Amino acid sequence: MKVGYARVSTEDQSLDAQRDQLRADGCSEIFEEKITSKKDRRPALDQALALLQPGDTLVVWKLDRLGRSVKHLTTLLHDLERRGVCFRSISDGIDTGTPTGKLLFHVLGAIAEFEAALVSERIKIGLQAAKQRGKQLGRPRRLEAHQVRQAEMLRTRENLTYEDIATQLKVGRTTLWRAGIR
C-alpha cells in the first residue's frame, strides 16, 4: 500500500498540487496538514507513520515536506527502513524500494553524519579557544571563594547543617555540595 503525506506551512497555502501528485502516484491513503515543519508534533504525519506496515511505501511530493532538518529526515528514514517500510519522494526521484534509491538514502545519511561531526568539531575548537582566552565556560558560579570559605567554617567550626548553611547563604543545598563543602 502507498500512503501519501502532504504538508504546507501556512493556512493560506494550498495542498492541491501535492494531493494531485500523490493520487497520480497511486496513494490509496493521503494524510494532509497545514503546519510548519518546525513543530515537534505533526498529527497527520504521526497517523500516516502509524498506519504503515512492512512492505508499504510512504510517499511525499518533495523531501522538504517530510523533515525539519537533514538529521530529522535521516532519523525518520532509518526508522522506516528498520520497520520494512519504503520511502518515495516524487520530485526528488528517491525511492528506497529500488537499489539506486537505497544508495541515495545511505549517501544522504552519510552526509548528515559528516555534517554533524563537523559541527561537533567546530564547537570543540571554539570552546578550546575560549578557554585559552580565559573565558569561564558553563554556568556562573553561585558562590564566591569567600562564601565557600565561610560555608566550610560554618560546617566545621559551628557544626551547622547543610540546610542551615544554605539558608544563611541564600543558596540550595546542592550548591554547597557542588562547591565541595563536606
Strand content: 5-15%
Nearest-angstrom radius of gyration?
27 Å
Helix percentage: 40-55%
Count of spatially separate domains: 2
**CATH-defined fold name of the largest domain:** Rossmann fold
Task: Categorize the overall geometry.
Answer: elongated
The major β-sheet equals:
5 strands, mixed
Distance between the termini: 65 Å
Would you report the number of β strands?
5
Tell me the strand order in the biggest sheet.
2-1-3-4-5
Give the C-level CATH assignment of the largest domain: Alpha Beta
Total of DSSP H or I helical runs spanning 4+ residues: 7
Indicate the structural class. alpha/beta
Order of helices and strands: EHEHEHEEHHHH
CATH H-level name of the largest domain... which superfamily? Answer: Resolvase, N-terminal catalytic domain
The average pLDDT value, as a whole number, equals: 89
The appropriate CATH architecture of the largest domain is 3-Layer(aba) Sandwich
Low-pLDDT runs of 5+ residues are: none
